[in-house]
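Following up on my earlier thread - several people asked me to post the actual chain instead of describing it. Fair enough. Here it is, all 202 residues.
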Amino acid sequence: MKGKKRFRSVTELVADVTDDENTIDAVKRTVDETSLGTMLFRIRCQRGLTQAQVATEMNTTQSAVSKIEHSPDDRISVRQIVRYTQAIGMTLTLTFDRPRNAVDQVKALFAEICEKMDELREIAGDDETIRRGVESFHDEWLFNTVLRVIEGKNELRTAPALKPHRTLTVVASEDPSDEFVRRLIRRYVKENADAKLASEKN
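Reply from S.P.:
Thanks for posting it. Predicted structure:
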């Protein structure tokens, strides 16, 4: 039996099934733009660092840093990635998890958000200024989250197809949760208006 044809890259596979140069070039650009080395390069540039600076932090040469940024994904080791991310002042998070549906992902993200909120409260401690900042952030996050939840419910009730938008149209409903979130929004708006008025007087 004839063995399966093997390809060293996605670009080679595409070139084998089509002669269209535009398609091949488009795939190559997509692969290049989403490669690990390219992402590291972009992050370094965003942080305003040169290859020489990263090389110094990694205790290596500039050419070694350049090689990491231009190597195929399968040629970059985990150790290199860890050292590179440390050199640019970032951390690497590697997650192994079972496949999850959208509902499971939302639940997991919410649990993570709750943990981060707890961390913020711990950081604030007894510092009144930081505590006010954390409290303000809590209110802002709650407002934005509740607003998006209401938008989502409205879209489910009124639209044949889900289309994201940024306007809030309240739909009449017997759902008690709707009235609850409306009260939260009204309170949030009033408190912020009062705070703004007080600051203007001062």
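The two ends are 85 Å apart (CA to CA). That should answer part of your original question.
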